[in-house]
Structure formats: structure tokens, C-alpha cells
Write a structure and sequence with these properties.
Elements (H helix, E strand, L loop, with lengths): L3 E10 L7 E11 L4 E6 L5 H8 L7 E6 L2 E2 L4 H10 E4 L12 H11 L4 H15 L15 H13 L5 E5 L7 H18 L2 E5 L3 H7 L2 E6 L2 E6 L1 H5 L2 H6 L6 H11 L11 H11 L6
Parallel strand pairs: 3-8, 3-9, 6-7, 7-8
Antiparallel strand pairs: 1-2, 1-4, 4-5, 9-10
The structure holds adenosine-5'-triphosphate and magnesium ion.
């Protein structure tokens, strides 16, 4: 698993035109191998642009993207290798689906890796199961399916490559609560069993709070906050000034504190809040 370093990264869309837009502005960031990171930020803050740097889909305007100290853009071969090792699920899965059947779409990545047919088939079935794609859909055209199903197929296609670094841009958007829970559980299980790195972009503060060990909050193309969920959610005013919410449990704890209930600043998960309140009420545990 690689250590990732973004070094003074700058990215400008439509450079030299009247539509020029600085989307990343001098971002320096280290992501150690095996970390589970959630990337947050108001719409337009640069999240999708940043993660497209992680598999070399976008080339920096300035600065470098390093894996284990080596620039991913140093050669065509290095970039090809990175595309196999870093699985990126796009924010809009339509951009990722282009084969005539669901099966072919999921099999595309491992096929490109020139794996034996039996292994490809096994990976397609396992990753379809992982992402909640029913095998009865294998012969359907991905383009005829619902938004949620398309997203699952895109996720399955990326998982079939068994990535060392899994990058997911709003993967739970459009999924129902049960589907959302089971996908997040599967991602966590994959993280634990393989030790891979995960970068999850989400607007859901509760999801970031409960899934990730580190939160990065972007504002106007820069990393504005970087810390554990506990550290980041203990700065509600800053988050609100960036147009972001704090998780429900943190907001409730804050409201209770304002009414005189003594609670630690570090509460952000419903389970921890319930446990703390119950223990205050006489040592009941949950
Ligand atoms: N293809 C493009 N051409 C020009 N500008 C772009 C392009 N893609 C994004 N931008 C601009 O770059 C900035 C960062 O966009 P980006 O999509 O990375 O933000 P984001 O944080 O992912 O937003 P969202 O939460 O809406 O997905 C925005 O101002 C956006 O308008
Ligand atoms: Mg985006």
C-alpha cells in the first residue's frame, strides 16, 4: 500500500481563457498508507478536482502527486500502474459506464489487467455482491438502470480491480438507507481486511463522523481543516462559516451544554452521546 503525498498542488481549469478557474490552490497533504479519510467541503470547494489528481486523471497545473515518494506522472507506465492501483468511483457514475452490459462493465477493469478469464469472472461476481448488484442484471444495459443501480455498478467495476487505494466521490448519493448502510459496512470491511487506503467524499456529516478516522475539510481549493472527527467537530462555528453542518449528535450535545448540561466537547456520535447521558442519569450503560 502506498503513502500518498500531494505537494504544493495547483489545478486551474480552462487556463488562459475568460473561464479560467483555480480549483486547487497550493494543496500540500500526506495520506499515510491504510488511512480512512473523509473529504468534506461546500459545493465547488474542490473535492472532486482533488480526488481526480489521486489517480492521475487530471494533471497538476503545478506541484506533484507522489506515491511512495515517486511522481505518478514520471512516465506513461507509472501512470498506467497507478490507474490499476487506485480505484476511483466518480461522482456521476454515468461518466464511468460505457459497455453494453452490466457484466462487461464490471469486467472491464480486470480485463484490462489481462487477468485469466476464470479470475475475471470470480472478481465480477464478488464485486457485484459487494456493491449490491443482483446477478439477474448482468445482461442488462447499464444505461437503462436507475441512478442508484448505476452507482452500484460503477462501484463494482472499481472493486473488481482490488484497488490499494479506494477513492469514492459521494458513493451513497441516491441509495436508500439500508443500501447505504450495507455499502458503508462493506467498504469498512474491505478497509479492515486489506489495509487499503480509503478516501471518501461525502456531504453527510454523520457518515464522515462514524466511518473515517481523519477528516479533511476543503474551502476554496484549499484544506481548511484537517484532524480526527473529534478535533474537526469541536469547531462548529468554523464549519458553519463554511456552509457545513455538524453531525446531529454534536449539535444536540452543544444545545444541551448551552442549557447547562456538562458534556465533553468531543461528542459527535449518537452512541457516545447516549452513553454519556445515560451514565449521568445513574450509571446505566448501553
Ligand atoms: N470542467 C470544469 N471546467 C471549469 N471549471 C470547473 C470544472 N469542473 C469544476 N470546475 C470548477 O472548479 C471548482 C471546484 O469544483 P469541484 O467539482 O472540484 O468541486 P466539489 O467540491 O467537488 O463540488 P461538489 O460538492 O458540487 O461536487 C468549482 O468552482 C467548479 O465550478
Ligand atoms: Mg464534486
Amino acid at each position: 500500500m502506498p503513502d500518498i503525498r500531494l505537494e504544493s498542488l495547483r489545478y486551474v481549469y480552462s487556463r488562459g481563457t475568460p473561464f479560467e478557474k483555480v480549483a486547487l490552490n497550493d494543496v500540500t497533504l500526506d495520506i499515510p498508507a491504510g488511512q480512512y479519510v473523509a473529504l468534506l467541503g461546500h459545493t465547488g470547494s474542490g473535492k472532486s478536482t482533488l480526488i481526480q489528481q489521486l489517480n492521475g486523471l487530471l494533471t497538476p497545473t503545478a506541484g506533484r502527486v507522489l506515491y511512495d515518494g515517486e511522481d505518478i506522472h514520471r512516465s506513461k507506465e507509472a501512470l498506467r500502474d497507478i490507474r490499476f492501483r487506485v480505484g476511483l468511483v466518480f461522482q456521476y457514475p454515468e461518466y464511468q459506464l460505457f459497455e453494453e452490459t452490466v457484466y462487461k462493465d464490471i469486467a472491464f477493469g480486470p480485463g484490462n489487467m489481462r487477468l485469466p478469464a476464470a479470475e475475471i469472472e470470480e472478481r465480477v461476481r464478488k464485486s457485484a455482491h459487494f456493491a449490491g448488484v443482483d446477478e439477474s442484471l448482468f445482461d442488462a444495459s447499464p444505461l437503462e438502470l436507475s441512478g442508484g443501480q448505476k452507482r452500484r455498478i460503477a462501484i463494482a467495476g472499481v472493486m473488481a480491480m482490488k484497488p490499494d487505494v479506494l477513492v469514492l466521490d459521494e458513493p451513497i448519493a441516491g441509495l436508500d438507507p439500508a443500501g447505504c448502510r450495507s455499502l458503508l459496512e462493506n467498504i469498512k470491511r474491505y478497509h479492515r481486511s486489506t489495509g487499503c487506503t480509503i478516501v471518501l467524499v461525502t456531504h453527510e456529516m454523520n457518515v464522515a463522523a462514524t466511518e473515517a478516522e481523519r477528516l479533511l475539510v476543503m474551502r476554496a481549493g484549499q484544506i481548511a481543516l484537517d484532524g480526527t472527527p473529534q478535533e474537526v467537530f469541536s469547531r462548529p462555528e468554523e464549519l458553519r462559516s463554511m456552509g457545513l453542518d455538524i453531525p446531529g449528535a454534536a449539535a444536540l450535545a452543544q444545545a444541551l451544554r448551552q442549557r447547562g448540561v456538562s458534556l465533553p466537547e468531543s461528542i459527535y456520535s449518537p452512541k457516545y452521546l447516549a452513553k454519556t447521558l445515560l451514565s449521568r442519569m445513574g450509571g446505566v450503560s448501553c
